[in-house]
Amino acid sequence: MIYTLTLNPALDITISADSLIKNSINKTHLKSVSAGGKGFNTSRALNCLGVKNRAVALCGGIFRKDIEKLLNDEKIDFHIIHISDSTRVNIKLIEQKSEKLTELNGEGPVIGKDEIENLMDFIKNINPKPGYFIISGSLPQNVDESIYFNIINICKSYGIKTLLDASGKPLYHGMLAVPDIVKINQNELGEVSDKYFNLKPEELIRRSLLKGLKMIMITNGPKQIQYFDQLNFYTIIPSDIKGLYKTGAGDCVNAGLIYALKNNFEIEERLKFAVSCGNANILSEIPGRFEISQVYDLIPNIKVQKLS
């Protein structure tokens, strides 16, 4: 069993228009409606891979029932911690002629102290105990930025492995707890290294691995990816995929990495498979969704190189 965590989920609505004309009425077409957020995307991707998982999230307000229905329709197993404020809405607008994507993301609800206590009680009594707990995404309002630190430490006390995918102060606090895996992008690494650790990125990586971090993967959009573990350093060049649907690609990489670890893939196979899951997501309108056949079709196009 794998658990995913989404503290700031959203009702994701994707629409398209030929082009966007300001100060005018624009005719749009509805492309998709889905339960959004990094944890939900990862659970969706794990479902595509046939991995049993459960999505844990804070949800409330007028959109909670919509999100629960969408998750049920997709057969995503979930546990919702109810909150009184309303879950946010994200709008993604695709301009067909220019192939531009504009994203309007809601700020997120205000979370009460008792609601966070309910979440922490659930994690402390989690059953069944998962092999991995995937902690990802932004925080809603009024949530202490050290929450990922606390969650990782709870998981470690139970022998549960953790994957952290966050940014800013939540990433900083989470890394202080030394999760098993960190998957972030180049900008997030640069920010947390300089602003919070006061270290160069390569020094932060080195020290984190010495403290017990098992592996770190650093993505950079469609560009070269870096992977470090306690013995190896690899670069990975993704497939050259043309598509507008980049939201959720990193979450699919997380799912692919956990799948490959659970199935004891050799390291180069593991990296190719994980990155290929992210590539396949770009071909889908729904963040976190892909066809497994596309994953295997894309694997031969991914280049992996071991460096000293």
Question: Which secondary structure elements does this structure contain, and how are they paired or packed?
Answer:
Blueprint: E1 2-6, E2 10-17, E3 29-36, H1 38-48, E4 53-60, H2 64-73, E5 78-83, E6 88-95, E7 100-105, H3 113-124, E8 132-136, H4 147-157, E9 161-165, H5 168-176, E10 181-185, H6 186-197, H7 201-211, E11 215-219, E12 225-229, E13 233-237, H8 249-262, H9 267-281, H10 292-298, E14 303-307
Parallel strand pairs: 1-4, 1-8, 2-6, 4-5, 8-9, 9-10, 10-11
Antiparallel strand pairs: 2-3, 6-7, 11-12, 12-13, 13-14
Give a short overview.
43% of the residues are buried.
Q: Could you walk me through the main structural features you see in this protein, from its secondary elements to its overall organization?
A:
The chain contains 10 helices and 14 strands. By secondary structure, the chain is of the alpha/beta class. The protein has a domain at 1-18 and 27-143: 3-Layer(aba) Sandwich (UDP-N-acetylmuramoyl-L-alanine:D-glutamate ligase), CATH 3.40.1190. The strands form 2 sheets. It has a 10-stranded mixed beta sheet, sandwiched between helices. Helix 1 packs across helix 8 (249-262), helix 4 packs parallel to helix 5 and helix 5 packs across helix 6 (186-197).
Largest sheet: 10 strands, mixed
**Total helix count?**
10
Shape: globular
Our estimate of the beta-strand percent is 25-35%
Q: Would you list the SSEs in sequence order as H and E?
A: EEEHEHEEEHEHEHEHHEEEHHHE
How far do the termini sit from each other? 35 Å
Identify the strand order in the major beta sheet.
5-4-1-8-9-10-11-12-13-14
Contiguous low-pLDDT stretches (5 residues minimum) are none
Radius of gyration (CA) equals: 19 Å
Number of strands: 14
**CATH homologous superfamily annotation of the domain at 1-18 and 27-143:** Ribokinase
